[in-house]
Amino acid sequence: MEYQILLQQIFNGISLGGVYALEAVGFGIIFNILKFSNFSHSGVVAITAYLGFFISKYVYTNFLVTLTITTLAGGFIGVMIEKLIFRPIRLKGAPLTLFLVNSITAAMLVQQFFAATLGDDYYPYPVFMKQTSINLGTLTISKTYTLMLIISGLILLLLTLVLKRTKIGIALRAASTDVRTPSLMGVNIDFVISVAFFIAGVLGGITGYLLGMTYSVDPFIGSMILKGIIAAIIGGMGSLGGGVIAGLLLGVAESLLIAEIGSSLTQIAIYSGIFVLLLIRPEGIGGKRYLIKA
Amino acid sequence: MSGCSLFYPSSRPRKKIQRGIISNREISSKEEYGMKKKWFVAFLSLAMVLAFTDLSMAKEEVIKIGIYADLSAGTAQWGTDAVKGAKLIVKEINAAGGGLGKKIELVIYDCKVSPTEGVKVYSRLVNEDRVPAVYGSLVSNIGLAVSPVAEKLKVPVVARCMDERVTTPDFKMEDPENPGRVNPYFFLLQPSSYQQSYLIAGYAIDELKMNTFAMLYTPSNSYSFMLAKGFEYYIKKRGKKMVGSFDFQAGDMDFKAQLTKIKGLNPDGLYIPNYVPENANAAKQARELGLKTTFLGNNSWFEPMDKVAGPAADGAYFPLNISRDDPSLKVFIDKYKAEYNELPRLHSFSGWDDVGFIIEAIKKSKSTDPQKIRDAMATTTKYQGVIGTINIDPKTHRPIGLKMPILKFEGDQIKTVRLGYYQKDF
User: Fold this and answer.
1) Do B86 and B355 meet the contact criterion of CB atoms below 8 Å apart?
2) Contact between chains at B284 and A131 (C-beta distance less than 8 A)
3) Residue-wise pLDDT tens for chain B (426 aa)?
4) Which residues in B lie closer than 8 A to residue A224 (C-beta atoms)?
5) A contacts of B260 (beta carbons < 8 Å)
6) A122 and B307 in contact by Cβ < 8 A?
């Protein structure tokens, strides 16, 4: 019996970790290039979570259609955020702290906007599929979580292909080592940064949609990316592979610990674990050492 | 304002010449003194003007009642419903001539589900709006923050904070029979956490014949925490078994780890006493994990739980302050529907009752003095609220012996299974 529970907890952890991994990568891809912690990612998540609700409830109730629309909308919102609040200060050569401040402000703005306008009601997504579970022996696997895991996996795979095989992927990777040099070599760096924000936005869109669908939507849904940020830190800021591994690890660790020692001690254990890890290996699991971090 | 010149120290320069020995320093301090005097006079005249306007405003004959409620974020639907209920009763009482021959006026602030914000707007209602009584947010965490401030500012608060420590600050969880000192300025108008958890636990033991229990609650919400503690206390007193007690942290939305564990323990009943989103997520995830245990809920399992959890809540039992199937509530429900074009939810009833209770106390004390209103509240018996007859216990400031209907989810429909239930004593 214990063994089956353990197996079940590991599966729970992986499906939870899949979402953390998505968040960590969306967060990390911006850090990679611009070297600041982009908290406005939570804004993208919140907007798309609400968008997904309204589309599936009032326009067209279909899992894939809504997913596609929210994903693209997420990308678009990401680009808009970059153009509106980051590009102006980047062109002025503002210090990194200002980027950080702007990103937090944007996140707060979105959160407060939803709290003020839509805060007095609950927004449960329509039921796309009957919430049933598949029994594999004694293991119970829920459809939604499996779907979440598959989508996270596919998207991360696709992203890896884009980064490794395409021209823009190479430009992105070049920019992540140094923003200035590629621009001297004729790479349109503004475009590269826009693409980075688009990809981050796409990931944010999927995250928002999955979170909104599994849980219900509220103005503070964006704050759920905190775990993703933690995963990104453990993984090594900017290391996408590290972020994925850390996200999965965090999910599994949480599941196992909560069941055994309770949720309050789990948080203490996890945060002190992170502290120790960063003392030993400040660059995280898969990160490189950066000189500037904000 | 011509009076000002009378006080102007016009003789000062001459003095300076006459004496000739006053040091520079002394001169400047004297000048400062003159300036101060000038400001003092200006301030005095301003104060007088204000005093007069205040007097003339008082002639408008209104009695203000303060409200701080959560109108945005988190539990905003409850706050909005409460304010709607409150406005409706004020409208009705004003149409019938108001209270003490004056119109009742509500002063409403949003406290945004934040304890610090709650303290801020309560102080503002007392110090700036000068209200004689306040209807407060129903969130226990806010109540815990406002309670000591109310004791200092001495303006009574009526609220739905179920955590016992809001009305009796020294309440000990292990010894609920001795509630300790009462906060003279805070009142609860519904069964408290312990009372409500006893009720559902009693129903589960006596009517549903359950023997083993587990629970999933959050210590970050004092309402959920106290319900869980009360439930555990009652179960143990009745000789039944708590096989697993699990908690989660504020903001957590994924309870699969806890629920998987509970599934292994296989209790007869699972008590889930949290707010709507957490309850709904717990129910949904439990069903997805194939957990078949009967859910036992708190009074947050009512609407919009049916909408948020859907059929996952099927089979859950929970106590509620009211049942819309109660024929005696029809009058209120019709009035509410006519006004807002929607059915009243739980806290629409709360708002109506609580503000009605405040107005009753004002009428009874024949005064707008907060102290006298408080005294009237503390001795109120047989107040006919829509949730039942409220008798305030002066020792705890909580109502005595209120029965509650027991409701049940059938699919995503909420049905009343018992109109007025009260548990056995242990």
Assistant:
1) yes
2) yes
3) 444 444 444 444 444 444 444 444 444 555 555 566 666 666 666 666 655 555 544 456 899 999 999 998 778 889 999 999 999 999 999 999 888 889 999 999 999 889 999 999 999 999 999 999 999 999 999 999 999 999 999 999 999 999 999 999 999 988 898 889 999 999 999 999 999 999 999 999 999 999 999 999 999 999 999 999 999 999 999 999 999 999 999 888 889 999 999 999 999 999 999 999 899 999 999 988 889 999 999 999 998 889 888 889 999 999 999 888 888 899 899 999 999 999 999 899 999 999 999 999 999 999 999 999 999 999 998 898 888 889 999 999 999 888 999 999 998 899 999 888 888 887
4) 251, 253
5) 5, 8-9, 12, 255, 259
6) yes
B62-191+326-395: CATH class: alpha beta
Three-state secondary structure along B325-385? CCHHHHHHHHHHHHHHCCCCCHHHHHHHHHHHHHHHHHHHHCCCCHHHHHHHHHCCCCEEE
Beta bridge partners of B106: B65
A62 and B CB contact within 8 Å: no
Report CB contact under 8 Å: B310, A124.
yes
Q: Do A131 and B258 touch (CB under 8 A)?
A: no
Say how many C-beta atoms besides its own lie within 10 A of residue A201's C-beta: 30
Q: What is the ipTM of this complex?
A: 0.85
Question: Which of B295, B298, B326 has the alpha carbon at shortest distance from B312?
Answer: B295
pTM: 0.83
- Please indicate whether the domains covering B62-191+326-395 and B194-320+405-421 agree at the CATH topology level: yes
Chain centroid offset of residue A168 CA: 21
Answer whether A219 touches B (CB < 8 Å): yes
Give chain A positions within 8 Å (CB) of B73: 115, 119, 218-220
Fold of B194-320+405-421: Rossmann fold (3.40.50)
CA distance A42 to chain B (A): 14
DSSP run (H or E) holding A141: strand A139-142
Would the CB atoms of B77 and A121 count as touching at under 8 Å? Answer: yes
A144 chain-B contacts, CB cut-off 8 A: 288
Residue of chain B whose Cα is closest to the Cα of A146: B288
Ranges of each domain in chain B: 2-58, 62-191+326-395, 194-320+405-421
Q: Do B260 and A135 lie within an 8 Å CB cutoff?
A: no
Q: Which amino acid is at B131?
A: V
Contact yes or no for B258 and A258 at CB 8 A: yes
- In chain B, the residue whose alpha carbon lies closest to the alpha carbon of A111 is B73
Give the residues across from B241 on adjacent strands.
B212
Give the chain B residue whose CA is nearest to the CA of A253.
B257
Is A9 in CB contact (< 8 Å) with chain B?
Answer: yes
